[in-house]
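Quick log. Single chain, no ligands specified.
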Amino acid sequence: MSACVGFRVPASKAFSRSFSTSSSTKFTIARPFKGYKLDPPSNEVVSTKEELLGYYKTMLFYRRLEIVADTMYKQRLIRGFCHLYDGQEAIVTGMEASIKKTDSVITAYRDHCHQIARGDTGASVLSELCGRKTGCAKGKGGSMHMYYKKNNFYGGNGIVGAQVPVGAGLAFAHKYSKDGGIAIAAYGDGASNQGQIFEAANMAALWKLPIIFLCENNQYGMGTSAARAASNTDFYTRGDVIPGLWIDGMDVLASRAGFKFAADWCRSGKGPIFVEASTYRYHGHSMSDPGISYRSREEVNQVRAERDPIELVKNRLLQQGWADEAQLKALEKEIRKQVDEDAEFAKNSPELPVNEAFNEIYEGTPPPYIRTVDFRQSIVN
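-> predicted structure:
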C-alpha cells in the first residue's frame, strides 16, 4: 500500500483554474465581538472571492469527512471512542488562516479536523480511525490521539483538560527559544472548570507566555448544558487578569479576524489571551451519544437552518455573485469523490502487524519480558 494521498488544506489556490480572483469586499459580522479587559476588533471584515471559495471547500471537506466517519463507525470499521467536529468547522478554518505552521496547536479528543488543518490528509486520518498501518499514528492512536509533528500539532489528548498545561509548556518553549511562535491550547466548555486550566493560566500570566487559551464552546459538556455546569458561562472572561475575546465560531470570517487579533496580541509580547469561540456540535458528544436526550431535534435543526457555518459562506458567495449554485454543487461533488477515495484507501490499507505493537514505545529494544493483562499471554522476547 502506498503512502497516504488526499486533500490537504489550505487549498484556496486550487480555485485559480476554475474561478477568477476578485477585489476584496467588506462584510459585517452579525454577532459582534466582545472583549474583556481589551477593545475588541472591528466587526467589519474584508475577504475576497478566492478566500471564501477556499474556506467553503475546506469546510465542506471537514463536514464530509466527519459524516463518512460516522457511517464507517456504524459499519464497525471504526471502533472505540470517536468524537465528531461537524458544526464547528469555521473555528479551525478561521484559526489556521490566521496563524503559521511554525506555531504550536494542541487540542482535546475532537481532533480529526485539527489534524488535517495542520497539513495531514483525509486518507491518513480515516486510516488512523480504522486502526490501519497507513494512519497518522500507524493505527495505534485512533480517534483521540492524532499527531502531526511536521507542523507542530501535538494532539489529540484523551484526558479532559490535560492538554492545556502542555499548551502552556509549548508557549514557554516558543518564548524561551525566541522564535516568534505562539501556542494555542483548545478545550471545550465541559473542561472549562478544570483546575489545571487555571494553574496553567496563572503561570502564563506570570511569565507572559504567548498562548491563546481557546474554549470551543459547543454549548454542551457531554450531556450537560453549559448553564447547568458553570456559574460563569462567559468563558472569555475566565482569565481573571488575562484579557479575553468572544468570537462567533459559526462565522469563518469572524473566526479568522478574531484569531488574527489574538495571535497579534500574543506575538506583540502582551502575554496570554482567552478566546471563546461560540459554536454548536451537530452530533452527540461521541458516537455513543445520540445527542437528543438532553436537547431537542428542533434545537439542532434550528441551528442548522439559521447559523450553519458552511451555509453562511455559501450565501455570501451567492449574494456577491462570486459563484452560482451549479458551481458550488460541482465543488461539493468533487469533495464527496475525494472523501470516498480516502475512505476506500483506509478500508484497503493493512492493519499493523502484531509484532510491531510495542515498537516506538521503548527506547532501543523491548525488555525480554512484557506482561500483558492476561499474564498467560505475556510476551517473551
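Confidence is low (pLDDT under 50) at residues 10-21.
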